[in-house]
Here is the input.
Amino acid sequence: MTSEVLSSIHRLAKIQPQKTALTDGQTSLTYRELAEGIRTLALKLKVFKGACVAIEMENSIDWVMADLACIASQVVTVPLPTFFTASQREHAMRNAGVQCCISDGLKVTPLAYQAVLLPERTAKITYTSGTTGSPKGVCLSQPGMEQVATSLLSVIGAAPASHTAAVLPLAVLLENVAGCYATLLAGGCYDVRPQAVIGLGAGMKPDWVSLVRYLAMSHATSCILVPEMLRGILHVLSQGGMRLPDIQFVAVGGAKVSPKLLEQSRQRNLPVYQGYGLSECASVVSVNTPQAVVRESVGQVLPHVDAYVAEDGEICINHPAFLGYVGEKPGSMVYATGDLGLIDGQGFLHITGRKKNVLITAFGRNVSPEWPESELLAQPEIAQCLVVGDGASYLAALLVPTGEQVSDVMLQKAVDQANARLPAYARIHQWARVRPFTVLEGLLTGTGRPKREMIVRFYHTLIHTLFKEEAYANIF
Here is the structure.
């Protein structure tokens, strides 16, 4: 199996051996040292060739080294996110038939899970946190993942990848492929530090000041964020005294991005560009760039992606990197994303909602909840929200305010502003104030996407009160 990422590393190890490939702020590895380290660890992993090997570490130089050595030794990597619960971790290990685990300090521990049959050419199994407690294992090929990284560089250019800051966990495919692989293919420096060091430690309230300070002091030229991180960064920048002059490109994805956040980014001259992707497509499908941007879209479809919109409005991808789910039949040559949208004449993709999320009101009107949610999120008082109302005569919403200073009166005004931009059947008639949806409570995916079913179950009683006498037993 050939790897363009490994080829790039070995090429630079010869022609620019002293160029920095990885840094954690204290230790740095040149491309020559990285190539040598990959070779040494790959020899140690050779005995596991063809088997599944889990990587269970915080973001670090060692995480990247382990991942690259697994490619070199032709083992199947199973990244385990630190935000997984103990039961999710156990499920992933057993489901993939993991034969060993690489942990902090590059410690290799053999395991005795029963091996499972995987689709041919599987190089990585990424477990999506999804909407249930048992995540699904998405099997991907190495060429499929690297094609995404190559496509990204072709539309964004190598300059933004000259010094990439790893903000998301590396166990999240988006960071692994669009952050790490793209940077190493571009011959750039990948700045990878433990999340606790940059203000994003698991189980702790995010320290946005520390995150902005890290981005500034590292002189990062690019990074990947989820919307909530962007919101925190913008809040810090709005206080004055801190700037990010080196940043050339900030990709934001993983969940719906509020138009207000994008507008605030423009006002602060922060080069933020919204994208869209799926694990089954090896992360990125489309992205806006400085050279091609339509604000209301999630960007132009990447050059290698063959996408179309089915008759019912669902976005479909031909020949995705997806090989199939662990324990299920091989993947199809066409992947139905479950997302509704359109592709305009210039190839820009517009997402209008989720097919399975469509709410059918008691009046027979179909409403994608993402539509009123986007209007709610455009209000500066609202940080997160979830719209419900399937089978009911009106819609209601759970609202997370942007801060404790936001009163209920202010929230009502924000709802009124959103409703003014919606037709009567899509307006919010009742709402409740709730605390932030978090990954730790199982209400968000690792990339910040709300887990609708879990949120509805979590707030089951509260939702019932919003509909008073409505027959609302079918919300599940």
In short: The radius of gyration is 22 Å. The chain has two domains: 4-351, 358-475. Residues 469-476 have pLDDT under 50 and may be disordered. The chain is about 30% helix and 25% strand.
